[in-house]
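User: For documentation purposes, I need each entry recorded in a consistent format: the amino acid sequence on its own, followed directly by the corresponding structure tokens. There are two entries in this batch. Please keep commentary to a minimum and don't merge the entries.

Assistant: Recorded as requested. Entry 1:
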Amino acid sequence: MPALQDLIVRSARALSAPYYTPAQTEAAIRYVFGVDSQLIADGTYFLIELEGEVVACGGWSKRRTLFGGDQTKVGPDPLLDAAAEAARIRAFFVDPRMARRGLGRRLIAECLKGARAAGFRSLELVATLPGEPLYLASGFTVTERFELALPQGVRVPVSRMRLVL
């Protein structure tokens, strides 16, 4: 968990710089980005290691939560109905030194395989602006653009995206 949290912070700070202000990035790190231990418990969260160091992480979820780490949880996280609802793509982060090397695509492929095997026919996610190009390249389409309203009046633009399997 500490290695994942460290990766999340490093990834967010470095890769968000061209898209978000430092205040937006720090607010997202504090209030949104983080490890979701339910994904780990469900066995739907994946890591890529290089020489013993976690360099990428991401997963899919069969639960209702659309985004956010443990710090955003307020109650139970019920299971989705695979026949009627979309699985979630969640918590993708890549070490800035390893960006643009296909690690995100490898994780997406693993997630698609798992969601299909679980009977899901579509996936959805909320993408940050730096993450949006990965998801577009993976076949997702933007269905809505909105802003997360965070404490101290910070607003973070994001995109809701969807992929039909």
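Entry 2:
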Amino acid sequence: MDYGKYKYEVQKRKNEAKKNQKVVNIKELKIRPAIDTHDYEVKIKQAKKFLAQGDKVKFTMRFKGREMSANDLGSEVLNRIIEDLDLVGKVDSAPKLEGRQMSMIISPEK
């Protein structure tokens, strides 16, 4: 077999595999534990839009100062987000605390 022909076929297989793959983007939404109702609704609306497009959504909750002692407020907000997005997405990684921020990832339903 000709080496040039072999290289051509390998390249063609690579291109075909690349054509069939799906790129998944992660969109990040940053929130605070003392988020107001309207701000919360705007973030939920953005998350629903991102999930409808097929992107994953990462929620990051930042704690400042004394908010670190009230981690339960942050987890309550993230649990409320999980309940509100239950129909359009599922939780990939549960809320976990990493230093001064708590994060979770939600992926779209199939």
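Summary note for entry 2:
Residues 61 and 106 are 14 Å apart (CA to CA).
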